[in-house]
């Protein structure tokens, strides 16, 4: 049974910041000399930050989220990570996707969750990814997932202009993909995938058609994705997990010109998304998890920052009890991982477990591979 | 004859990116083995002329535009008269996966592919040695940080694990010693991008940074340099097995993903034995191994046993419709680059050093949608040369009354789309369309137009099938 959601099924939105967001530069220890000693270039001056207490302040480019934080809708998970953090993007992201730091496995945590929600794999819209290519987090053999690059253009044979012709082509497509028994695992997989796409696209058509909103999203990839999610969520198609990614956080070089826009686009899109949901009376059963594969190096490299550890995540929404959770990573050099990285203070698998058990109402240990400390960010 | 053409169509899908019907007829006259000989001898055919193409696509003059250069590569796949050369470049790119995103230096990545084009069909030793000296690889796996007294093992490890032998055939000490042998192998720093654009980096051997003490590697001891390490690697049975499994996986039938190779045996032991024997018989020379492969029964019997990679799907569909030959205003290289990217394969930018997950892992709901729509859209315009040719061939094949019955319509369409073999349910679906269309007639202009539209639609249905996802 759902643990939450005001009588409606709880919905989770996962936003992946790809490349490793600079957490120290997002929630800034603005009274710490360590920050200013190590960040000669990639820093925000004290007078420009948005303080939330005597120690910490948001980056001014993150203002919309800071305002939501003041409204009590943002739980900041400080120091999220895992032991001996992997600095490779792909291995690092893989670990976040599979909850398995020591070996390479094929089942992702979101996919495993979808299997709990829809054990017989009957509903291809239970989980939807917005973007190109399915994240490993959603991939589990036999679990149908829909992946949408562009909601308005989504669907098969969209290049066939005439409706009647297209309908005929789709009907034949359906006939051709329908029968697959005994044709071998790959053909069967193709058949199932084709049918899922067909059904999913058919149902998703309803979303853009019924949607209207006074919220005007910004012009960015993450805004388009979150708007697509809002359109599908408000259409009431039964989707329980939405996933999307926002790329470009790998700021080794030129962080000062690039990072502000990332935070502006992201935070603006998040605020617009929740405003949009509220306007549709559809915000009370949505909780968003924003994560990234790692934080960045404490000391900047004269242009940007290299891969580090000890990042930060955010849990956002109406049902959230806003505030700071876990602890900000220690700034004392003797505690630093590898002598140069922020040490994590809470394991990401405990945060997944928090989302799963306290929000989605699903047992977490089998999904996150063990028992980890949780936080209590929900009302 | 029809069987010969079908077999040569299979060969051209695997050793190249497909072939038009006219080309297949020509090749069938030559005979299968002669075609194999030609394929492994690209120097018999002229190099692709790109001057006009470059003049019409000015992006190609920007050395820092990745989509321009990946698009150009697909253009080459479509138009080259040396298809196996491009195919081998794609294979080595998938095996020695090097991505743009780390260095963000386009000339190095482009040059790496040029190197694969140049030496891809030579022998394993040359290929590995060129790879070891390749600036893009050197930076990608940090060999420029591999110093005397401060070894960096990234390149040494992947050389053994992912590029030659596979896990389980060497020790951690072998990795350390191999890494030490490659100390001092670095590259010249290219001049900065601004304001003059990107310039090449060159291989550089820094003797004073090379660790010239003794190393023990795979049981042999000596003052080894990088080249000695590669010499030792290429004699190993594990290397022969690993390379041959890659060739099988790429040209014959899908194997599990590479990390599973130490756990899962090859699907065809006999085929592997044949290839490994050829490897040792010919000292790792690639042409004779491939000749053995293409002429083998296991290859000939493997039609439609491999899921097409996005590059193969895109290049194949474009070859089918006969576009991108001469620059047209609406044919831009960026489109070619973007098409494979949305299907999950951004060329020159693989996700990790392990490369793309291939086989059925190319396909998920999103990518299947992109694949089907891309191919269907290529066939939206029946005035494209490839479609016109197919229509002309069909209109010439009518019966005494000049008409084609639905069954013939389906059979001929499958044949002309590249001898696509389909199962019964697929055929039934296509037949349903053909029956709704009725007999195709070509006598009057109106009939011919209607028939052309039906043929175009039939081809769209064929490229949307499950079977079309396979090569």
In a few lines, what is going on in this structure?
Chain A has 379 residues and is α/β, with parallel strands linked by helices. Helix content of chain A is 34%, strand content 15%.
Protein model, in words:
The complex is a heterodimer of chains A (379) and B (471). Chain A is of the alpha/beta class and 379 residues long. Chain A is 34% helix and 15% strand. Chain A has helices spanning 33-38, 63-70, 89-98, 109-117, 163-178, 185-204, 206-210, 221-234, 255-279, 348-360, 365-368, and strands at 11-18, 27-29, 50-51, 56-58, 74-81, 127-130, 146-148, 241-247, 286-292, 311-316, 323-325, 346-347. In chain A, the strands form two sheets. In chain A, strands 1, 5, 6, 7, 8, 9, 10, 11 and 12 form a nine-stranded mixed sheet that branches. In chain A, helix 2 (63-70) packs across helix 9, helix 5 (163-178) runs antiparallel to helix 6 (185-204) and helix 8 runs parallel beside helix 9 (255-279). Chain A is globular. The two termini of chain A are 17 Å apart. The mean pLDDT of chain A is 93. By secondary structure, chain B is mostly helical. Helix content of chain B is 55%, strand content 3%. Chain B contains 24 helices and six strands. Chain B is globular, with a radius of gyration of 24 Å. The A-B interface holds A 88, 90-91, 104, 124, 129, 132-134, 139, 144-149, 154-160, 165, 168-169, 172-173, 175-180, 183, 185-187, 189-191, 193-194, 196-197, 200-201, 250 and B 101, 254, 259, 307, 341-342, 344, 351-352, 359-360, 363-370, 372-373, 376-377, 380, 423-426, 428-430, 432-433, 436, 457, 460-461, 464-466, 469.
